[in-house]
Write a structure and sequence with these properties.
This protein is mainly alpha-helical. It contains twelve helices and no strands.
Length: 326
C-alpha cells in the first residue's frame, strides 16, 4: 500500500489530483499487476529488466548532468543533537532496501537457483544502494528538500532543473514504472508464496491452482483484494505516507531479525558471525522504529499462539484416536 501511494504520487507531481483520483490510479496499478500476472513469470521478469535498465540510465544522466563530484559526498559528521532525527530517518530509509528477498518465492523460476539467487540478491542490494546514494547526493547538492511537499516532488523538480520543464514527464513515467516494478515483484512473489504453502497443505488447497501459463491466479487475486481493501482504508483514515512506510518496515525488519537469529543458530563459521552482526543491525532498526513495530510484534505473537493452539488440538485428536484404533 505504501508503494502504491508513492507510485500515484509521481502523477500528483504533474497534475492536481484529489484523494479518490489517486485511489483510482492505485486501482489501475493493481489491475496492471493482475494482467501481467496472468501472462506468467517470464513476461513479468522481462518487464522488470527493462524498467531496471531505464532507471539505471536515468541515474547515470543525473550523475553527469548534475556534475556530482566526490567532494559532494564528503558530508560533515552529525552533531549530538542530530542523532535522534537520524534514527527516525533511518527507520524510513530502510524502505529503500526491503523486499529484495521477495523473489526468493520465485525460486522455481531460476534455472540454477544455487548459483543465480545469491548473485541476484547481492547484485540487487548493491545496485539499489548505488542508485539511492547518487540520487540523494544530487538532491542534497541542489537543496531540493525540506517540507513534505518538497520531499515528495524532489526528483521531478531535480529533472526539471537539470533538463528543463518537460523532463518532469520523463521522471513521472520512470518513477511510476520503478514503483510498479517493486509492487509487481512484491505481489507476484507473495502470491507464489501463498500458492506454495497451499500446495504443502498449510493453506486451503483451493489456493494451489495454477493457470495454463503457470500463474497462481487465485492466490494472486487474494493478495490484490487485500491490497484494494488497504488502499481504501488508507484514504478513508487519511494515514500519512511516512507512517505507512514505518509500519511496513516494522514487518520486514521483524522477519529479517527472526531469519538472522535462525541463521545464527543453524550456521557455522563466517556465516554464523555474519548472521550475528545482522541480528544486531536489525535490532537497532527496530529500536529506531519505536511504536510502529508493535503491530507486527502483536500479530506475530498472535499467529504464534494460534499455531501452538492448532498443534495442541491436532495432538489431542491424535491421542483420542489411538484408543479407537486399538
Amino acid at each position: 500500500p505504501a508503494a502504491l501511494m508513492i507510485a500515484a504520487g509521481f502523477w500528483h507531481a504533474l497534475f492536481e489530483m484529489g484523494e479518490w483520483t489517486l485511489w483510482a490510479i492505485q486501482l489501475l496499478t493493481l489491475l496492471g499487476v493482475f494482467l501481467l500476472g496472468l501472462r506468467g513469470a517470464r513476461s513479468s521478469g522481462n518487464l522488470q529488466l527493462l524498467i531496471a535498465l531505464a532507471i539505471l540510465g536515468l541515474t547515470l544522466l543525473i550523475w553527469f548532468k548534475g556534475e556530482v563530484s566526490w567532494r559532494d559526498a564528503a558530508r560533515p559528521l552529525p552533531s549530538a543533537d542530530e542523532w535522534p532525527p537520524m534514527a527516525t530517518a533511518l527507520a524510513v530509509m530502510f524502505w529503500c532496501f526491503v523486499g529484495l528477498e521477495a523473489f526468493a518465492h520465485m525460486g522455481e523460476e531460476f534455472k540454477r537457483p544455487e548459483r543465480d539467487y545469491p548473485i541476484a540478491l547481492l547484485g540487487g542490494v548493491l545496485l539499489a544502494g548505488l542508485i539511492y546514494w547518487i540520487h540523494s547526493l544530487v538532491v542534497l547538492k541542489y537543496g531540493l528538500y525540506g517540507d513534505e511537499a518538497k520531499n515528495a516532488t524532489a526528483i521531478p523538480s531535480l529533472l526539471a532543473l537539470l533538463f528543463g520543464p518537460t523532463a518532469k514527464w520523463l521522471v513521472a513515467v520512470l518513477g511510476y514504472l520503478s514503483c510498479f516494478a517493486s509492487i509487481n515483484i512484491y505481489i507476484q512473489g507473495f502470491a507464489r508464496l501463498i500458492w506454495s504453502m497451499a500446495r504443502e497443505g498449510k493453506l486451503p488447497a483451493s489456493l494451489a491452482v495454477l493457470t495454463a501459463r503457470g500463474a497462481p491466479l487465485r492466490a494472486l487475486g487474494l493478495v490484490l483484494a487485500i491490497c484494494l481493501l488497504c488502499i481504501t482504508l488508507i484514504i478513508w483514515l487519511r494515514l500519512p505516507l511516512d507512517e505507512l512506510i514505518r509500519y511496513a518496515n516494522g514487518n520486514f525488519v521483524l522477519v529479517y531479525l527472526l531469519c538472522m537469529a535462525a541463521g545464527w543458530r543453524l550456521l557455522g563459521g563466517v556465516g554464523k558471525g555474519l548472521a550475528g552482526v545482522s541480528v544486531l543491525l536489525c535490532a537497532l532498526v527496530l529500536v529506531a522504529l519505536a511504536t510502529q513495530v508493535l503491530y507486527a510484534v502483536v500479530l506475530s505473537l498472535g499467529y504464534g499462539g494460534f499455531s501452538l493452539w492448532r498443534r495442541h488440538l491436532r495432538r489431542s485428536r491424535q491421542q483420542d484416536a489411538l484408543p479407537l484404533a486399538k
